[in-house]
């Protein structure tokens, strides 16, 4: 550790660059004591995690909770900083950066991965699950593990699935009760071919847009409507510019926390273990936050003028045939859908 030979002294050769290189060497030794002391002393690892939602949103709070657990259990050596509110960009961009290791962790909706990882289409398929409880009981088992495995060949590791409730349509003009009411409407969707197919099946015009652009697109009339769960409808303030919320509850596409495979591969086995356990424990924590936020968001938008109406759900379910036909042509998707159905 103490290497007096490196100490600068008046007898050193008077080379013009010598003082600089000595400072660099000394600095490196101070910044990376583990390298000098040997592998026994773990280095501090700092990870950056992205989320488009604002601070306080359940997904952001779940990853902050995970970060607290990881920091405690690693004796402060594993640190995770959550960059919320789009600070690192829209989901599509952050996914690319996660795959290439520029961003270490990313909380996104599975819908954002549909085109890249076909397995992620399964939980997002319209009306596949009768309830979010049923969906999570399936995702917590081998089907969920197989969906997560799908990430690995695309540079990501799946750490946790989080609640996202059910998504329903909302628009500026009128209540939607049947698919016929949506004919010709311009509806914003996530950037996923599955969502384009859903809109086609309903006779609407799909407009794929990043989430952060939806408010002004609604406000200026570039689109007529969008679809989302209560908390996103509320925190994005879309309810101010699209007040008709129609309870189609057509998809339960969950949230997912992924890690860059490059960042994962660099972690020590101990840190991987800490992260996996903390991610698992953040799920029930998030579940509680979600239940509270879901109810509060609905109250807030209704108090703020949102008009909520029921729909002819059977008519929406019946219209989804072409979506299933198109996406279960992929053998892996088909097999997973069959397993979901067999699970009851
Ligand atoms: C929200 C998800 C968010 C998605 C957004 C969207 O939490 O990750 O990006 O929907 O529709 O519910 O793009």
Major β-sheet profile: 5 strands, mixed
Distance between the termini: 63 Å
CATH architecture grouping of the largest domain? 3-Layer(aba) Sandwich
Q: Output the number of helix runs.
A: 15
Number of domains: 2
Give, in order, the helices and strands. Answer: HHEHEHEHHHEEEHEHEHEEHHEHHH
Tell me the fraction of residues in β-strands, as a range. Answer: 15-25%
Organism: Roseomonas acroporae
Protein name: TRAP transporter substrate-binding protein
GO molecular function: carbohydrate binding
GO biological process, one term: transmembrane transport
In short:
The protein has about 350 residues and is an alpha/beta fold. It has helices spanning about 20-30, 35, 60-75, 90-100, 120-125, 130-140, 140-150, 195-200, 215-220, 230-235, 260-265, 270-305, 315-320, 320-325, 330-340; strands at about 45-50, 80-85, 105-110, 155-160, 165-170, 185-190, 205-210, 225-230, 245-250, 255-260, 305-310.
SSE arrangement:
Blueprint: H1 18-31, H2 33-37, E1 45-50, H3 58-73, E2 78-83, H4 91-99, E3 105-109, H5 121-124, H6 132-139, H7 142-152, E4 156-162, E5 167-171, E6 186-189, H8 193-201, E7 205-208, H9 214-220, E8 225-228, H10 230-235, E9 244-251, E10 255-260, H11 261-266, H12 269-303, E11 307-309, H13 313-318, H14 321-327, H15 331-342
Parallel strand pairs: 1-2, 1-3, 6-7, 9-11
Antiparallel strand pairs: 3-10, 4-10, 5-8, 5-9
Helix pairs in contact: 3-12, 8-14
